[in-house]
Amino acid sequence: MKVLAIRGRNLASLEGEFEVDFTVEPLLSAGIFAISGPTGAGKSTILDAMCLALFARTPRTDQAKENNVKLRDVNEEVLPQSDPRFLLRRGTASGYAEVDFLALNGHRYRSRWSVGRARDKENGRLQSPRVALYNIDQEKEEQGTRSELQSRVVELIGLTFEQFTRSVLLAQNDFSTFLKAEQGEKASLLEKLTGTELYSSVSRLIFEKNAVAKEAYDKIQARIQGIELLTEEAEQELQTRLKESEAALSDLEKSKVEQQALQEGVKATGQQIATRQVQQKEAAGKLLRATELLNTARKEYEQGIQDEQRSDADFKALQQELQQARRLDVRLDEAIRSVKDTEIRLRDALQRKKEGEDKLKAARTRQEHGMAEINRLTDWRKRYERKESIAEQLSALLLHLDTASGARQTIEKSTKTIESIKQTASRLVVQLETVQRTAGNKQVALRKTEEAIGKQEQELKSQDMETLDKQIESVRVERENLLIEQARQTASGDIMELRKKLQEGSPCPVCGSLHHPAVTHAAVSEMPKLIAALTLQLQQLTARKAAYGAGEKQLNQLRQQLLQLHKELTEAEQSRTDILGRQKLAETQITREESICAESKETLNKSLSAANRLFGNDEWQKAWLQDPDSFRETLTTFARQWHENTEKLQQLQREQSAQKAECESYASFLPSLIRETEEATLRHEKNRTELSALQAERSKLLSGKPADQVEQEYNLRKEELKERLKRLQTVQTEQSGIADQLKGISDQIARDLEKASEDLLLRQKALSDWSESWNEKHGGESLDALLARVTQEKNEYAFRLRSNAENKQKIASQQKELEACRVQSERWAKLNDLAGSADGAKFRRIAQGYTLDVLLNYANVQLRDLSRRYRLERVPETLALQVIDRDMCDEIRTVHSLSGGESFLVSLALALGLSSLSSNRMKVESLFIDEGFGSLDADTLRIAMDALESLRTQGRKIGVISHVQEMTERIPVQIRVNRAGNGRSYLEVI
């Protein structure tokens, strides 16, 4: 994994766009570079941008453990203090972080994290961040959700966030904490830093599995112990009693059947008697109701005959009144038609009268409005009578004005053009002098560059780079092999002692071999000298190669400079020719514009003189000169208004005579309409009076009802009386038959009741005899009680035998499960004794002990380059660390006795060792170290820089953040973060 570029915008103090590109010079050739600047300028923000783009997280925000603490954003919104969106600079609407990197598959990718505020406003609410991933080589965007894209980034670089922050980005404070932490904290930190949390989980899982297995075994054993079984004697006795109770129960059930048969007979006969008694009562009631209905029907029939006779007499008496009423009805119809006719005529007369009055009023109103408009137009013409000539000669006047305006504009335009051309000509003179002076300088620089190129080519031809590359690769491989062998031998000191005792020809006690090539390897004490010598040789060879590369780079730059000078000379000559041509063109344009200006002035004077004659004076020119367009529009508007008012006045005068005749016509026709209305009103009142008299006379006959209605009501009543008499006759016949039938049913029910009473006495006697016989045989105990007791005994015996059989089956089936649980429980108990614990500490300490040993081997390799005085070891049987002081005869010292600078060196060695431990299966080509060098003296600082230089020779590009001046001065390539005031900073690469 290799970081190619870091970009961002509006992050913390870095306002606007910023970019750090490692693919261009000087960062491309720099193996180590510094990120420098004052405190708070934004150095660590560059590393935050890298983490944001790759993982949407940063080490600093992840350290905000108090997630329940919320900080205020704009518009009173609050967010957790660990939210990385707080890196967006206040007062900005959006920002982003972007990283280009080389993935494990060999492709270049670009990962981007961006955030914005609502409505793209500075005071808008923070939106959810967005992530994007591009394949730069294939020029396509990866698709997926935010979590899927972040997982894809981890897959491409081969590192999680935790692994990245210990193999690519090293935060010194974490490792200083690790050096002096307690054992429990050290184990927890090792889990966090090395990704070995699995061991604690396994330990807790073993403990939980052991508890579950033991609980399952105890539960099954408790269930088996809780099951009770009968003895063989008790089981045999229960079976005998069960058979006896079953036989007794069979006899009792037969007796119960006999008793129930006798009881059912008595009960059925009693129910039959009760039913017949109810039927006898119902039949008597029905007979009584039928007799009553028959008598009522006879009475109503006689009354109906009387009503029919009385109705016929009343109708004969009304015959004369009906005839008189029909004659009045005919007269009333004629009177109603007359009233309606006169009402329609009166309404029409009133409508015609109203229309005549409205037309007369409207005509007089129009006549008055016309006279008022005539008077207004006449007054307006008198007011502007002296300007009538302007309106009549408008076309000629406008022609002169337009000609004058065009000439005036041409003069102004030509004047400005002449001034502009003269200014251009002056600039061309200056440009010509500059171009001629520049061309002379370029010719001098061209000769010097050609001489430098020849000299540089001679120097490069004298060096053989192919042989130099082979030497560098050979020395680097030999040195790496010695470092690995040294770490391996240091981790297995006892094995080395055994190897020293081996003799050629004698068998090895481990493998039995007679040959021992490992004995011939260099001793551990000689390896540091060999490694130091190879390191010095490698640095010298690398310096030679770097010098050759710098020479090639300088040669290429000189060649590019030569090409650029040739190009610039050609361009200067072209510029000189172009300037001379433009000067001649300017002189021609000035002459042409001066001729146009003279012609336009003559035309202007002629047009103004002609316009003065039409206006009669020259006072108008002042208004025209101020705004010609507005003046012309005023003249046009006045002429149009003059002609429109003239035509309108003539039209109104013609309409006035017609309106006067119309008013006189409407006034003469109105009296005849008034007389017609009065006559129609008198006729209508007379007809209404006659109609009222006839209506009063008719209301006295038949109570005002129509004659046909009275006759129809009589006919309907007569038909109803006939229908009622017919219905009453039918009811008499039906009720007479029903009464005879009910009387026969009552007699039959009485005979049935007498027979059922005799049968009931016989059945009751049989039941009484059976009960007496049962009581004598069983001592007075009832059949039901005896039957219930015997049934209960039989069920109890059967239940106890069935439960005993089921318990035997349960015990047999659970014995196999108990044995399987016992084996499982014993297995987990043994494993729990070895590595299980409730908090995961037992297996974690075992695993972290081995992990810590490996880490210390890597760290001691780095510590030899930083300080040969110290070596780190693990306190036996613990996770604590101790320091071996070689300058004091390998005295064991506590890590708390180290000074600040010594603690930093040891912590840096641990950090670099952990970096190697985290990335030992993949090539990590970028390394960033944040702060921590301020506590070192000059000599120790030099040693630390030498160690970092050695890391560079391993192919890594190393970035260091530090305030130490000596360190930044020693590193030639720097990314400097400069303050610009108001909390803003900007980047520059030096």
UniProtKB/TrEMBL annotation:
InterPro entries: P-loop_NTPase, Rad50/SbcC_AAA. Residues 217-262, 308-366, 446-485, 548-575 form a coiled coil. Pfam families: AAA_23, SbcC_Walker_B. It comes from the Bacteria. This is Exonuclease SbcC. PANTHER family: ABC TRANSPORTER ABCH.3 (PTHR32114:SF2). Residues 7-254 form the Rad50/SbcC-type AAA domain. It comes from Parabacteroides faecis. Keywords: Coiled coil, Exonuclease, Hydrolase, Nuclease. One of its GO terms (molecular function) is exonuclease activity. Signal peptide: none annotated.
